[in-house]
Amino acid sequence: MFKSIEKLMDEYLVKKAPFQIPANGRKGLVEWFPWIALIFGILQLLAAWNLWRAGHYVDQVVNYWNDISRAYGVDTPTYDLGPTYYVAVGAIVVSAALLLIAFPGLKDKSKKRGWDILLISTLFNLAYGVIAVFVDGRYGGGFGSLLGAALGALIGFYLLAQVKSLYSDKGESKKKPAEK
């Protein structure tokens, strides 16, 4: 499956691309990708933790005020944290984990494993953007999420396609023959 995606990326985002990143720019991206992945992985974990805490805090406050409203005879609709909230937090955690897992492979440029994991991360974020189209708008989903995910994925695919040639498979699938 990934071979066909890589071929499409190579065809449309390298060979037919209207702009090629200069060699020095590609080398710079390869040098910075591990650190970008590490920083954004950590930031996403922090964001997931803060979203988790904030969601539960707000849920407690809403429940408190709903209890007060009911005590005075006012029946208010109650919105609890639904599956969308948990899926969103889970998606952030998975995305962060993929970036952190990619770090060692990106740092060791003789392996394409880190590049492959960034590709998986980009595909995952695009898939989540498609799923977000079907989410109720009050949770921030909808068509805007799809557009943001599609634009982010396009930029990610373009950058990955441009630097792919600088990663190799040396050391991953080729084992040294046994010494006698």
Describe what is shown at a glance.
The protein is mostly helical and 180 residues long. It has helices spanning 2-15, 23-71, 83-107, 113-132, 143-163.
Verbal overview:
With 180 residues, this protein is mainly α. It has one domain (2-166). Helices cover 72% and strands 0% of the residues. It has 5 helices and no strands. The chain has helices spanning 2-15, 23-71, 83-107, 113-132, 143-163. The longest helix has 49 residues, at 23-71. The protein starts with a helix and ends in a 17-residue tail after the last helix. Residues 171-180 have low confidence and may be disordered.
Tally of structural domains: 1
Percent of residues in helices comes to over 70%
Unreliable stretches: 171-180
Radius of gyration: 22 Å
Largest beta-sheet details: none
Mean pLDDT: 85
N-to-C SSE string, H for helix and E for strand: HHHHH
Topology diagram in text:
Elements: H1 2-15, H2 23-71, H3 83-107, H4 113-132, H5 143-163
Output the keywords.
mainly alpha; disordered C terminus; 5 helices; 180 residues
